[in-house]
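Researcher: Let's do a round of design. I'm pasting the structure tokens now; please hold your answer until I've finished.
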């Protein structure tokens, strides 16, 4: 339906991973200083492409599958080998 409930269902529909991608990218940016998609505020056609699209998709699908569990996503990110590397 073309109302707020229809919009909410579309935003969180498993067939629509855009919301999960945006959320994962924002958490990634807070932890690593830069998102997988550098234009964090523009995921549209004018924004930049993801540097690692497969990683973004994997994290987004796992985030959805976990029931949108932010704590689990953050645990996964901070226990990754990427997070443990030095910034140099």
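Researcher: That's everything. Go ahead.
Model: Designed sequence:
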């Amino acid at each position: 339906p073309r109302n707020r409930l229809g919009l909410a269902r579309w935003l969180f529909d498993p067939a629509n991973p855009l919301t999960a991608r945006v959320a994962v990218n924002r958490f990634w940016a807070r932890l690593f200083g830069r998102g997988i998609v550098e234009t964090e505020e523009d995921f549209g056609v004018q924004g930049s492409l993801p540097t690692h699209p497969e990683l973004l998709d994997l994290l987004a699908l796992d985030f959805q599958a976990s029931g949108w569990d932010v704590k689990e996503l953050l645990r996964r990110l901070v226990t990754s080998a990427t997070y443990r590397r030095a910034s140099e």
